[in-house]
Write a structure and sequence with these properties.
The protein has 332 residues and is mainly alpha-helical. It has one domain: Up-down Bundle (Na+/H+ antiporter like fold), CATH 1.20.1530. The protein contains 15 helices and no strands.
Length: 332
């Protein structure tokens, strides 16, 4: 929670700085490029850490396959629930209220859709670059770092972890700069009101229903499946709590770790593609809790400032539910 507070602090600082600067007529046209470059560096280092993690490499077999299947079910379930919620609220693919797109002249929403918001998100080239960087990092970590002397591994872990924290702080500052120069976020919150909470709830319901069903189909118990899925991508918390419940839950803990790592990485890689091909709101449900920190800059760049409000709310509410839900389910 201290790190989350740190990240949010940088976002707020960037937002306030940009807001005050924007009032003087200044802008930051270089932020988008700097943000994307920082995301690339973050993805490569994350790949290094994954490849050098013995637990990750050891679980790439059967447990890894089970984790992948659970992740797919969770993501598809969350996107399906978000899609239904979006339709109920009358929002288009880009998260805009269709009724607001009809101008005073009586122009039909379909016409307004073609004339507003030119942003189409990051292109597929960026998506493949991110995928390649994660893969390259994992290969380097697995073949050149994993298995080194304990002291070397400890230094590597500390160095890369600190680097990730620094890069995330920089990213959040950039996001704050980008948001501070736009009035769209405030307008989006005012228009959405309490409806902004409906999407996190839909994401969690879709995740739990589809994910737990997948766990049961693969032979896990209801207790194990519920604890795994309610982790919502928090791989540094949920697996540890599950493991603390006893040795009989070590398999569930390993699956939880792999599933949550896969969900976050899937979000980093596929948010741009989901945003472009399916919908902006649906993309905010892909990474789970990471929507409010690691993936927030990617959501902002892929979907624009409007979607940031929903992504941030999704991550915050999931974080609260996970921190309470996993211990309650496991009885620890």
């Amino acid at each position: 929670m201290k790190l989350l507070a740190l990240y949010w602090s940088f976002l707020v600082i960037g937002y306030i700085f940009a807001w005050k600067t924007a009032r003087k007529g200044r802008s930051f046209p270089w932020v988008a490029t700097a943000m994307l470059g920082t995301v690339y560096g973050l993805c490569f280092i994350m790949g290094l850490r994954m490849g050098s993690n013995e637990q990750v490499i050891a679980n790439l077999g059967t447990i890894g396959l089970m984790s992948l299947v659970i992740t797919i079910f969770c993501i598809v379930g969350s996107m399906g629930a978000i899609f239904l919620t979006r339709k109920i609220f009358g929002m288009d693919r880009k998260g805009r209220f269709i009724a607001d797109l009809q101008d005073a002249s009586g122009e039909q929403p379909a016409e307004a859709l073609r004339q507003t918001d030119d942003q189409e998100g990051m292109d597929l080239k960026s998506t493949f670059i991110i995928l390649g960087l994660v893969a390259a990092g994992m290969l380097i970590g697995a073949f050149f770092i994993l298995g080194r002397a304990p002291r070397t591994m400890t230094l590597f872990d500390v160095a890369t972890n600190d680097t990730l924290i620094v890069l995330l702080c920089i990213l959040m500052f950039f996001v704050g700069l980008d948001l501070g120069g736009s009035e769209e976020v405030i307008r989006s919150v005012r228009r959405a009101g309490l409806r902004v909470l409906a999407f996190p709830v839909a994401t969690m319901i879709g995740t739990m229903v589809a994910g737990v069903a997948a766990c049961l189909l693969m032979g896990l118990t209801l207790k194990e499946g519920s604890a795994i899925c309610i982790g919502f991508g928090w791989y540094s918390y949920a697996p540890i709590v599950i493991a603390s419940a006893g040795q009989q839950y070590m398999i569930a803990s390993a699956i939880s770790f792999m599933h949550n790592v896969i969900r976050e990485v899937t979000g980093i890689i596929f948010i741009p593609l989901v945003a472009k091909k399916i919908g902006y709101m649906e993309s905010t449900g892909v990474p789970g809790i990471a929507a409010m920190d690691v993936c927030l800059p990617i959501v902002e760049r892929s979907c624009g400032p409007n979607a940031v409000v929903y992504a941030f709310a999704t991550g915050v509410i999931m974080c609260i539910v996970t921190s309470l839900g996993v211990p309650l389910i496991m009885g620890v």
